[in-house]
Design goal:
This protein has five helices and 26 strands. By secondary structure, the protein is mainly beta. It folds into three domains: 97 residues, Galactose-binding domain-like (Jelly Rolls, Sandwich); 118 residues, Sandwich (Jelly Rolls); 95 residues, Jelly Rolls (Sandwich). The strands form five sheets. Strands 3, 4, 5, 7, 10, 12, 14, 17 and 19 form a nine-stranded antiparallel β-sheet that branches. The longest helix has 20 residues. About 1% of the residues have low confidence.
């Protein structure tokens, strides 16, 4: 039996209807901006199709972009793994080999090996011990002759292998010349301990981080500090020079022992640039991990959101159209949008707005800053191409 209220309605049904209404409202709020626009029957921007089919260069949710005053602005960076290593590395191809050439046949030997670090190779040799020897020993790498000489027995030989002949997959062929007029004799070599000696150098001595500083932040900087932690992975007692640069201005340069330590370095505010900035760490050698890297700017005044994004050669060389897409919340939205050296005016009471950036963006680093004149929120800021 159903229980009805005084108006003859079932309270269970009313509660269900209310719950469905709340769910519909929540669903509408979390929809992507273009889907929300279509659902509400509004005129959607042309870029809605591009947003769904194109690729993204920058995707941010700035939130409230009203005039907010901050005491500190922090720029946080990934770790920098800096090292310079070199040394020999050996691998055995064969414990022993017999190579022969006579009237009754030949016995050549093929030795195969792989390399996955060609770019780091500085020198490469084939070493072996000669136990027996008669005739000339001939060695070919991937079909190219690299050695053709007689070697005396009971000798250790080192044959230089041209690095430019090496490939990822390699074949060494070893043979001996025929005996000639002494057809009844045979030429042969008996070798032991055939090994490859690789001289390599692994280097990654510098790391560059790109970050953005808006014009509002640049003019508001009162004090600035670079903070980082150095973890040494080298042998104790080793010393190397560690340097840090901001926009090619030297911030730090010291002969650093192999220790683990925190560093704090003051930065001259004149070193910052409005737009894209670069922070570089470099070492003269050793093996260091630089972590917990951040630049802390103490500011006085208003600081507005700014971002840096990168367009690579492969993207820029294609005939793409670039766009800026904004999904916003608030009443009156008035702002200047600074993209590289251009200023775009925003003055609207609608939620969605798009701009054509095709003739504004450039190859490499690009910069955008939002400078608002009213209080509003940006839920989605997207720069893409299609």
């Amino acid at each position: 039996m159903f229980l009805l209220n005084k108006k003859g309605r079932d309270p269970t049904v009313e509660g269900l209807i209310f719950l469905i209404g709340i769910m519909i409202i929540l669903y509408t709020l979390i929809l992507p901006p273009c889907d929300k626009c279509r659902l509400l029957g509004r005129d959607c921007p042309v870029t809605c199709d591009e947003v769904e089919s194109g690729s993204v260069l920058l995707l941010e949710s700035p939130g409230d972009v009203g005039e907010v005053e901050d005491d500190n602005v922090r720029h946080v960076f990934d770790s920098a793994n800096l090292f310079s290593k070199s040394g020999p590395e050996s691998s055995i191809l064969s414990n022993s080999l017999m190579i022969k050439n006579s009237l009754f046949g030949t016995l050549d030997q093929d030795l195969e090996f792989s390399l996955d670090d060609l770019e780091n190779l500085k020198e490469f040799t084939l070493d072996f011990a000669v136990i027996e020897a008669k005739g000339n020993l001939m060695i070919y790498l991937n079909g190219k002759e690299i050695f053709n000489e007689h070697i005396n027995p009971n000798n250790v030989k080192s044959v230089r292998i041209p690095v430019e002949y090496l490939e990822e997959e390699n074949t060494l062929t070893m043979s001996v010349n025929p005996p000639g007029f002494a057809f009844w004799a045979s030429n042969k070599y008996y070798l032991k301990d055939i090994m490859l000696i690789k001289g390599f150098e692994l280097t990654h001595t510098s790391e560059v981080f790109e970050f953005s500083v808006g014009s509002s932040e640049r003019s508001a900087i009162k004090d600035s500090e670079l903070r980082f932690y150095v973890y040494c992975k080298d042998e104790p007692g080793q010393t190397n020079i560690l340097k840090a640069y901001l926009n090619e201005n030297l911030l730090y340069s010291e002969l650093l022992a192999c220790i683990n330590e925190n560093f704090e370095v003051e930065i001259d505010e004149d070193y910052f640039e409005s737009g894209t900035n670069s922070l570089e760490f470099s070492v003269s050698g050793g093996d260091f991990l630089v972590t917990d890297i951040e630049i802390v700017n103490e500011v006085e005044g208003k600081v507005y959101p700014s971002y840096t994004f990168y367009i690579g050669d492969s993207i820029y060389e294609e005939d793409y159209d670039y766009y800026l897409f904004l999904d916003m919340y608030g009443d009156e939205k008035i702002a200047d949008i600074i993209v590289n050296d251009d200023i775009l005016s925003l003055n609207t009471d609608t939620s969605l707005k798009e701009y054509d950036l095709t003739n504004i963006l450039k190859k490499g680093n690009n910069f955008i800053e939002i400078r608002p004149y009213t209080d509003f929120s940006i839920d989605t800021l997207k720069i893409g191409y299609a």
